[in-house]
Amino acid sequence: MEKPAILGGKPVREKPLPFVSIIFDDDEIQSSLIALKDRALASGVFIEKFEKEFANFIGTKYAVSVSNGTDGLFLAYLVLGLTFNKHVVTTPITFIATASTIVHTGAIPIFADVDFDGNISPESVAKVVKSGEVDGLSLVHLYGKPVEMDPILEIAEEYQIPIIEDASHAHGAEYKGKKVGSIGDIGVFSLYPTKVIAAGGWGGVITTNNREVYEKLLYLRAHGEERVKLGKAGAYTYIRLGYNLRMSNIEAAVAYHQLKKINKFIEARQKNAKLLTDLLSDVDGLILPTYPAYMKHIFYIYNVLIDENKIGWTRDKFVEALNAEGIPAERGYHTPLHKQPLFQRINDPNVNHFARIIKYPDYGKVKLPKAEEVAKRTIWLPVHPGLNEEDIESIAKAIVKLIEWKKGKS
């Protein structure tokens, strides 16, 4: 029986695997050089080309590039009027930006519970909507798996509530034949370097089928300047309060060519995920990701729920032990947002300046049992396109090694 590396044994991998991998080639390099040679840095043809192709890919009429996914969420809430004292239901199992941008617009996050896959629970959403005033729904297609949208759409239609899809993990994921980002009122995607596709730095995209929303976004991302509509004739004429939240032409040049390869990237992720599932399917104590046939899961992250009693390790120690084996496991979103120090102290003006004019719920009293359990039991594993079959096999080997060692010691 092999001793774990964390206890002095030989690691499964001498050279650790990367948790993420940015894959690009001469296409991205050459297009960046074109933008540089043309002196087209802040604006240029690649922005227009990328926006057009991204809208085509998602299946929406419009796509608006922005500085990053966080700013995309901020603008999405803003353009839908989810501002002062409006209530927006969202998930506590997500990156902080999903909820912090709600606060930045002056709105109030209301957390619903999740299912064991980590995605927001339609039943919990319905319960929250029916129990109080709700003005918007912000859903996260977590890890690349779509939210169960039909019941969400039903409750949104019944109560006339707009839906924002935070699809930062889910470029190309589908629900019943429709790509996420085209199902709700607005979709938001991140192009951060770790995502399914990347831009040349930061970058994000907002998608919509609503012409009025699209036109407002163009103004909001560019100082509210009439140049948006009138070109040079509108220079230095400002018709609304706006921001400077635009993507650069160089970033768009990289994103444009990344988008051309997205189906290849997704296929590699799905192939790696299937292999890992096959290798771990008989291991007791692991709940592996599943999804129905009507969903396309693109596996931005391969998430596993563990049963600490069955595998013999605490979650945090198991992650530490896997890292010692050269496997870049992570704890993921290990503290739900309603339990984060920010939201525990959200009514303190020293923590959140909006607290001087807005009264927030006492998040310390919020109980979301599934979210709290999922946060304690989740492990993230990589399945990105930079990994090959041997790499995936080493991930499974390390997991089995650690669990079998514990069983042999019990």
Quick structural overview:
The protein is an alpha/beta fold and 410 residues long. It contains 15 helices and 13 strands.
Structural description of this entry:
The chain has helices spanning 26-37, 45-58, 69-79, 97-104, 122-131, 149-159, 211-220, 227-230, 249-260, 262-280, 308-311, 315-324, 341-344, 369-377, 389-409; strands spanning 62-66, 87-90, 108-111, 136-140, 163-166, 174-175, 178-179, 186-190, 204-208, 286-287, 295-296, 302-306, 378-381. The chain is an alpha/beta fold and 410 residues long. Strands 1-9-8-5-4-2-3 form a 7-stranded mixed sheet, sandwiched between helices. Helix 3 packs across helix 4, helix 5 runs parallel beside helix 6 and helix 10 packs parallel to helix 15. The longest helix has 21 residues, at 389-409.
What level of helicity do the residues show? 25-40%
Order of helices and strands: HHEHEHEHEHEEEEEHHHHEEEHHHHEH
Q: Which residues form runs of ≥5 with pLDDT under 50?
A: none
CATH topology heading of the domain at 26-261? Aspartate Aminotransferase, domain 2
Strand share of the residues?
5-15%
Keywords:
alpha/beta; 12% strand; 7-stranded mixed β-sheet; Aspartate Aminotransferase, domain 2; 410 residues
What's the topology here?
Elements: H1 26-37, H2 45-58, E1 62-66, H3 69-79, E2 87-90, H4 97-104, E3 108-111, H5 122-131, E4 136-140, H6 149-159, E5 163-166, E6 174-175, E7 178-179, E8 186-190, E9 204-208, H7 211-220, H8 227-230, H9 249-260, H10 262-280, E10 286-287, E11 295-296, E12 302-306, H11 308-311, H12 315-324, H13 341-344, H14 369-377, E13 378-381, H15 389-409
Parallel strand pairs: 2-3, 2-4, 4-5, 5-8
Antiparallel strand pairs: 1-9, 6-7, 6-11, 8-9, 10-12, 12-13
Helix pairs in contact: 1-9, 2-9, 3-4, 5-6, 10-15
